[in-house]
Amino acid sequence: MSWTKKVLRINLTKGTCKSEPLNMEWAEQFLGQRGLATKYLTEEVPPKTDPLSPENTMYLITGPLTGTMASTAGRYSVVTKSPLTGVIACSNSGGFFGNEMKCAGWDMVILEGKAKSPVYIHIDDDDAQILPADEIWGKSVWEADEWLHAKHQDPQLRVAAVGVSAEKGVLYAGIINDLHRAAGRSGVGTVMASKNVKAVTIRGSKGVSVDDPKAFFEATTAAKKILAENPVTGEGLPALGTQVLMNVINETGAMPTHNWKHSVFEGASKISGEAMLEARDTDGKPNLTRNAGCFACTISCGRISTINPEHFSVQNKDDLHKSYAGNSGGLEYEAAWALGSDTGIDDLDALTYAQFVCNEQGIDPISLGSTIAAAMEMFEEGFITTKDTDGIDLKFGNAEALVKCTELVGKGEGFGAELGQGSAKFCAKHGHPELSMTVRGQEFPAYDPRGIQGMGLGYATSNRGACHLRGYTVASEVLGIPIKTDPLETEGKAGLQIAFQNATAAFDSAGICIFTSFAWSLEDVAPQLNAACEGEWTVERLGEIGERIWNLERLYNEAAGFGGASDTLPPRLLKEGATSGPAEGKVSGLATMLPEYYAERGWAKDGSVTKETKARLGL
Amino acid sequence: MKHVIIGAGPSGVVAAEQIRKLNTKASITIIGDEPEAPYSRMAIPYHLIGDIEEKGTHLRHAKGHFKTLNIDVRNARVEAVDSTNKTVSLNNGADVSYDKLLIASGSRPNAPSIPGIDQAGVHSCWTLEDARAIAALAKPGAKVIQIGAGFIACIILEALARRDVDLTVVEMEDRMVPRMMDNVAGNMIQDWCVEKNINVFSNGQVMEIVKVDGDHTFKVKVKTPTGETELDADLVISATGVSPCVDFLADSGIEIDTGIIINKNMETNVPDIYASGDVAQGKDFCTGEYAVQAIQPTATEHGVIVAQNMVGRKGAECGGTINMNVLDTMGLISCSFGLWQGVEGGESSTLVEKDKWRYINLQFEDDVLVGGTAIGMTQHIGVMRGLIQSETSLGKWKDRLLENPLQIMDAYLASTHTAAIR
Amino acid sequence: MQMSLVIDANKCTGCLQCEMACSYEGEGVFNPTKSRIKIFPFHDEGIFVPYTCTQCDEAWCMHACPVEAIVINKATGAKEIVNDLCVGCKVCTIACPFGTVNYNADSGKVIKCDLCGGDPECAKACPTDAITYQDANWTGYDKMKDYAAKAVPAS
Question: Which CATH number fits domain B122-238: 3.30.457.10, 3.50.50.60, 3.40.50.300, 3.20.20.80?
Answer without folding.
Answer: 3.50.50.60
